[in-house]
Structures are given as structure tokens and as C-alpha cells.
TrEMBL record:
The protein's name: GNAT family N-acetyltransferase
Positions of region (Disordered): 169-204
Family annotation (InterPro entries): Acyl_CoA_acyltransferase, GNAT_dom, N-acetyltransferase
Keywords: Transferase
Organism this protein belongs to: Sphingopyxis bauzanensis
Record-annotated N-acetyltransferase domain positions: 19-170
Length: 204
């Protein structure tokens, strides 16, 4: 699946992206705010990550900046199943592009995609010492659940406390004003087979 926002192309990742991906994420200040990325981050780590891209996950994208010259990978965003069956939004942006609104821009597309896929609730979290990520989540309509959870971080090498957020997604046609309710009521998502088929066709 591919998508275009005002400044970004959101697309699947391929093995040939490994060098550019490793360069974009290869910053300790980025990796320490991610739960599963290792530090230091190598091209082999990028290849392993890209190998996990499959038709079973039609909602993970590289953020590619659209420019007049060569487009460049500036981050990644996606939705993944959690162990309890809920869906979590996660993202990162390369440091030269912090503060320019790219995470919010890509996140708005993910909210629309979640609505299209019939996902009614999204979770997200950030480490306590990364408040900028909380600002992005609030702009996207997420609200803190009031829970602080200690999560593992390969980049930090030790678990660290995180702040949990949630957002409910209005189903198309179910609201008089077609607006989303930012107060989350948790439930399980469904992943329509037709979207998985569409992913296979476009990623082939």
C-alpha cells in the first residue's frame, strides 16, 4: 500500500532501502526512544527489519520526503498488534527533520487508515523523557490513559517508564458530524482480507 501526503510518500520498505534506512535511524537519540531497535544500528539490522515487511502487516510505512531531487527516507510509521490484541501506533523521524511536522502529517494518514480498516481504537506510548512525542500524539487526538508502564528498550539497554495514550476512531457514517471521539474505549481490531490482498498486489 502506498499513500501521498502533502510532503511525504508513505510506502513499504524493500531490502535495497537498507543503507538509507540505517543512515536515517542511526542516531542514538532516535534509537533510545524506540522499544525494539538495537544500538548501535547497522545495515544488517535494517535488512532484518525490512525482511519483516509482509502482506500480514499492511500498515507499516517508510516516510519518504518528496523533493525536487532524490527522495529521501526520513522516518517510519506503522500500526502493530500488541499482545493483548489492541493496535499500537509507533513512529520515528530522523533528527534533521524534528520539529517540522512530519510525524503529525504521517500520523493523520494513519488515523484515516485505521478508520478505513475498521480499527476502532489505537494505543501509543512514549518514554517519559521524550515529551516531544507526547506533543505529536496530542495533536493527533490521543489522550493519556493515566497509566505509566515500564517498557524494555534495546537502545537504552534497560527498561524505562513510558506514558500510555489512547484514541478511539469513529466509524464512517456512525457520527452525525463524522468526527472522532478522542476518549478511548478499548476494543479489538479487524484486518479486512481485501486490504491484505491490495497490499500484496501493490507491494509485488
Amino acid at each position: 500500500m502506498f499513500a501521498r501526503t502533502e510532503r511525504l510518500l508513505l510506502r513499504p520498505g524493500w531490502q535495497e532501502d537498507a543503507p538509507a534506512l540505517a543512515r536515517a535511524i542511526g542516531d542514538e537519540m532516535i534509537v533510545r526512544n524506540l522499544a525494539s531497535a538495537p544500538w548501535p544500528y547497522s545495515e544488517d539490522d535494517a535488512r532484518t527489519f525490512l525482511a519483516g515487511w509482509s502482506s500480514a502487516n499492511p500498515s507499516r510505512f517508510l516516510m519518504v520526503q518528496r523533493t525536487a531531487s532524490s527522495p529521501r527516507i526520513i522516518g517510519c510509521i506503522g500500526m502493530d498488534h500488541m499482545e493483548d490484541g489492541l493496535v499500537e501506533l509507533g513512529y520515528w523521524v530522523a533528527r534533521p527533520f524534528w520539529g517540522l511536522g512530519y510525524a503529525t502529517e504521517a500520523g493523520r494518514h494513519m488515523i484515516d487508515l485505521a478508520r478505513t480498516m475498521g480499527i476502532r481504537n489505537l494505543m501509543a506510548s512514549h518514554f517519559v523523557d521524550n515529551p516531544a512525542s507526547g506533543s505529536v500524539l496530542r495533536k493527533l487526538g490521543f489522550r493519556p490513559t493515566g497509566r505509566e508502564i515500564v517498557r524494555a528498550s534495546r537502545g537504552r539497554g534497560t527498561p524505562a517508564p513510558t506514558i500510555e495514550y489512547a484514541r478511539s476512531i469513529a466509524a464512517p457514517g456512525n457520527d452525525k458530524d463524522d468526527a472522532d471521539d478522542p476518549v478511548a474505549t478499548l476494543g479489538k481490531p479487524r484486518w479486512p482480507a481485501e486490504m491484505r490482498d491490495d497490499w500484496r498486489l501493490q507491494a509485488a
